Amino acid sequence: MEVVIVPDAKAAGELIAEAMAQLLRRKPDALLGVATGSTPLPIYEALAAQVDAGAVDASKARIAQLDEYVGLPTGHPESYRATVLRQVVDPLGLSEAAFMGPDGSAADVQAACEAYDSALVEAGGVDLQLLGIGTDGHIGFNEPCSSLASRTRIKTLTEQTIADNARFFDGDLSQVPRHVITQGIGTILEARHLVLLATGEGKADAVAATVEGPVASVVPASALQLHPHATVVVDEAAASKLKLADYFRHTYANKPEWQGL
Ligand code: F6R
């Protein structure tokens, strides 16, 4: 995988937004896989700014969600559907018709998982999948020891992830759903380009294990090592435990410009 170290979250957002803009110039109806949480917000802001400035036309873009809480009432502001509509779909000037995601309020959750996995394939597959990373190394909500071949399915959040996400529920642990639907690791690996962004010192251990540790289900993000086109973008703080940081800096500084991300 390629590791790109940038000074801060703003620079990371601009770099990844530019990669998404280049994709949309090549393929206007690209299927963009998006993540929620705090980390990708600078990307969404930078991409919306490009659209507002007329630097890229996103009017045909399609948006696919990575995961969803199970059991939140439809329209709950912290459901990932509502979050992605608010943070990505609306700012890009898209309608809800451009959006696809798993149905966390389905009566038959298992059927909803299988339907979403199939819908991604029928849509032609994800062109660029954005990923954050949990402090425990999760991608999507594939918690440690998720099968590296897993498909979209229901998962139970770890206590660590429940605590990490309580900030979206007024700090009230009891309000955080215990279950989620997440694209599986096997599903995620089918996207044509994976771009994982990590910022802040709290992610440094997970990033080091992902990039420099062995491929192991105990660190789900390490599965990116199996993908032919995976890019890991980190700020200096998240890169602080990488032994090969200088090598990654040297490689990126000498990369031909035409290669993009
Ligand atoms: C969210 C998701 C999660 C987050 C991860 C990091 O859709 O898939 O894997 O990306 O928990 O969250 P933040 O960015 O809030 O630290």
Automatic annotation (TrEMBL):
The keyword Membrane does not apply. The keyword Hydrolase applies. Its EC number is 3.5.99.6. InterPro entries: Glc/Gal-6P_isomerase (IPR006148), Glucosamine6P_isomerase (IPR004547), Glucosamine6P_isomerase_CS (IPR018321), NagB/RpiA_transferase-like (IPR037171). It catalyses: alpha-D-glucosamine 6-phosphate + H2O = beta-D-fructose 6-phosphate + NH4(+). It is an enzyme of class 3 (hydrolase). Allosterically activated by N-acetylglucosamine 6-phosphate (GlcNAc6P). The active site is at D67, D136, H138, E143. It comes from the Bacteria. The record marks S146, R153, K155, T156 as: Part of the allosteric site. Residues 9-226 form the Glucosamine/galactosamine-6-phosphate isomerase domain. Catalyzes the reversible isomerization-deamination of glucosamine 6-phosphate (GlcN6P) to form fructose 6-phosphate (Fru6P) and ammonium ion. HAMAP family: GlcN6P_deamin. This is Glucosamine-6-phosphate deaminase. It comes from Streptomyces endophyticus. The gene is nagB.
